[in-house]
Amino acid sequence: MAQNVPITVAYGDGIGPEIMNATLDIIKAAGARIDIEEIEVGEKVYLRGISAGIEPSAWDSLARTKVFLKAPITTPQGGGYKSLNVTVRTAFSLYANVRPCVAYYPFVETKHPNMDVVIVRENEEDLYSGIEYQQTPTVMESIKLISRPGSEKIIRYAFEYARSNNRKKVTCFVKDNIMKQSDGLFHKVFDEIAAEYPDIENETWIVDIGAAKLADTPENFDVVVMPNLYGDILSDVAAQIAGSVGMAGGANIGDGFAMFEAIHGSAPRRAGQNLANPSGLLMGAVMMLVHIGQPDVATKVHNAWLRTLEDGIHTYDIYKEGISKQKVGTKEFAEAVIARI
Amino acid sequence: MAQNVPITVAYGDGIGPEIMNATLDIIKAAGARIDIEEIEVGEKVYLRGISAGIEPSAWDSLARTKVFLKAPITTPQGGGYKSLNVTVRTAFSLYANVRPCVAYYPFVETKHPNMDVVIVRENEEDLYSGIEYQQTPTVMESIKLISRPGSEKIIRYAFEYARSNNRKKVTCFVKDNIMKQSDGLFHKVFDEIAAEYPDIENETWIVDIGAAKLADTPENFDVVVMPNLYGDILSDVAAQIAGSVGMAGGANIGDGFAMFEAIHGSAPRRAGQNLANPSGLLMGAVMMLVHIGQPDVATKVHNAWLRTLEDGIHTYDIYKEGISKQKVGTKEFAEAVIARI
Ligand SMILES: CC(C)[C@H](C(=O)O)[C@@H](O)C(=O)O
Ligand SMILES: CC(C)[C@H](C(=O)O)[C@@H](O)C(=O)O
User: Fold this and answer.
1) Which of B176, B177, B206 has the most ligand 1 atoms within 8 A of CB, as the residue to mutate?
2) What sequence ranges are listed for the domain Isopropylmalate dehydrogenase-like (chains A, B) (predicted)?
3) Residues A82 and A130 in one domain
């Protein structure tokens, strides 16, 4: 029998624990060969005065397992607290944030039935540098950084992803008519690397009109690569118009470390009510299973989940009269998926 | 008889001259009391080596008339050229960019029939500062600036606009979980000013999920105020999903100066083919007519334009079998509007 793979898990805040329980129940039922190391991160840790929201000891587990399944975190309001997502992404150089946004029409309501877009988001640079200054008493400055090595890594990742996933086109979004240096560099590197992949179509849009086309006719896009902040905004847009931000998972990929998550937040107002859709985190977990060499389990989970959606068993966020059959809570949804494994 | 109002006009590049001719023909036919001063800006001027794309003498006309109707401009690729839009916005402190994005269902096809959103975009700050550095041979830096006075002006403008246009809610988009200083300041000022307008509902979204909701259920938004770059991207998104970026006009408002434009670009590939939809620039002109104290003419133009749309006389970008009656070119569209004045 194959050995279990150790993974680090954080249950997160808000709806986090509910969707993590659902996700782990499902993947275990499908036969995931994993050993779970739980770490405590997020709100409780922040409020203990640890500005990064993660106990120093938790880093040991992350450094050991190199695989992190993370539920959404609540970062307390106010100065001094640093986003745990960003801390982990930076600490382990998780340069690629891969977010598939897929429509499941006719089983899940959407205005964009043929949508199947993968947002490949640069994940370390841009305005996420966290460098800000108070220039004068009334002027604040934030620093946007784009580097050639960073741009090369993410753009090459996007083309390699396209090639190995049989995708036909990689689109680049930039605003280089205004940011001629920073976005200009990203665009230039895109053109250079695109030339190395003659088998894959490429195009570049200014992000304003590109985002407009993506929101209106997403079926015309395939893989879309872009700097961090555009990717943050447009992956939420793409996931939501495909069906719900609650349906999309993301893989944060580095060299020898990966973090998997739902793309949505911790939705504190919905917490503890057995309401949340665990699908986003589950899709993150499916990507994780592929990553740790258990594609068989990943496929089992994915198929059982698809059948659940097809059977009209839907959480509130995707429930629609006439399409859905049964409105269920987080737990019942997980049970329905497990019953279909 | 009331005196004519002098206005400065630039025919622009690409499809610019065609949509400007159509727009001017229509507003003149409706009785606009204007004297036109034409200035030359854009591609030809850039290529003469003037990096701002505007002849020094053209500033005299702008400074005199203080009203500028501008067709889209092509900024040549490559270093050194500065966006004319941004130059004029900055030179005359046009702090508010107001972009109504309205669905004209059932006359114009849209997936969002009840959409009626006004994007109020801060127009002088943010990453449009134009300040960029090469930090190292491989790292580029762009500076994002947000100021208290700038935020106060645009946010107050948004609430005043809401009040005088009978709108119920002002929404703010920021990313202050990452940019705690810059977007944090914008958010703080929003809360302060919102408190002065108890008659108007207010809410703030993180721009990622806010943009997702806007793209999915725009009918839940009313006036939306945000920093420059988010406004650039999301006004294109909003206009496109309402029907077409070709349908939206924008007013760039300062103290004692205003510029009116289509929100879309110069579409060089469509130029000279009598294809372009002049509606965006026409809606800019309608806002201009109100601004120069000719609301009677504005209403005439707007109604004739609405009747043209309702009669199914559509340019290619909004033409849809089953909804449209006649596919027309730029000129024929203008003639149809004029016939309905
Ligand atoms: C929570 C927040 C810091 C994070 C981000 O901005 O990256 C989130 O929106 C995401 O997309 O993962
Ligand atoms: C042409 C470009 C500089 C401009 C902008 O970014 O503001 C345009 O996209 C707009 O929205 O008016």
Assistant:
1) B177
2) 6-337
3) no
For residue B289, the CA-to-ligand 2 centroid distance in Å is 23
Instruction: Determine, yes or no, domain membership for B230.
Output: no
Residue among A13, A85, A87 whose CB has most ligand 1 atoms within 8 A, to mutate: A85
Nearest CA in chain A to B243: A216
DSSP 8-state class, residue A62 = H
Select from B141, B183, B212 the Cβ nearest to the Cβ of A240: B212
For residues A44 and A11, what is the distance between their CA atoms, to the nearest angstrom?
A: 12
> What is the block-wise mean pLDDT of chain B (341 residues), using blocks of 10 residues?
90 98 98 97 93 92 98 86 92 97 96 98 96 97 98 98 98 96 98 98 98 98 98 98 97 98 95 97 98 98 98 96 96 98 96
Final residue of a domain: which of B213, B242, B271?
B242
* Residue A78: pLDDT band with limits 50, 70, 90: confident
Task: From residue B262, give the alpha-carbon distance in Å to each of B14, B69, B108, B211.
Answer: 13, 9, 18, 22
Going by C-beta distance under 8 Å and a sequence separation of 6 or more, which residues neighbour residue A107?
A306, A309, A310, A312, A323
Q: What's the CATH code of the domain at B41?
A: 3.40.718.10
Please name every residue paired with B241 in a beta bridge, in sequence order, or none if there are none. Answer: none
Cα gap A97→A243, rounded to integer Å:
20
The answer to whether position A102 is within a domain reads no
Alpha-carbon distance of A119 to A211, in angstroms, equals 12
Q: Note whether A101 contacts B: Cβ–Cβ < 8 A.
A: no
Phi-psi label, residue B67: left if phi above 0, alpha if psi -120 to 50, beta otherwise? beta
Indicate the residue of B149, B178, B212 with minimum beta-carbon distance to A83: B178
Distance CA A94, CA A88 (A): 8
Check: pTM over 0.90? Answer yes or no. Answer: yes
Note the pLDDT tens digit of each residue in A146-203: 999 999 999 999 999 999 999 999 999 999 999 999 999 999 999 999 999 999 999 9
Instruction: Flag if B184 and A140 touch (Cβ within 8 Å).
Output: yes
Average pLDDT, chain A: 96
Same domain assignment for residues B249 and B296: yes
Note whether B323 contacts A: Cβ–Cβ < 8 A: no
Among A184, A212, A236, the residue with its CB nearest the CB of B237 is A212
- Do A130 and A210 belong to one domain? yes
Q: Of A242, A266, A293, which marks where a domain is finished?
A: A242
Residue A2 has a pLDDT of: 72
Q: Which ligand ends up closest to the CA of B85?
A: 2
Cβ separation B241–A216 shorter than 8 A: yes
Q: Does residue B283 share a domain with residue B247?
A: yes
Burial class (CB in 10 A: 0-12, 13-18, 19+), A31: middle
DSSP letters spanning A166-182: T--EEEEEE-TTT-TTH
Q: Is residue B231 part of a domain?
A: no
Cα of A206 to nearest chain B Cα, Å: 9
Residues 19-78 of B with CB under 8 A from A: 75
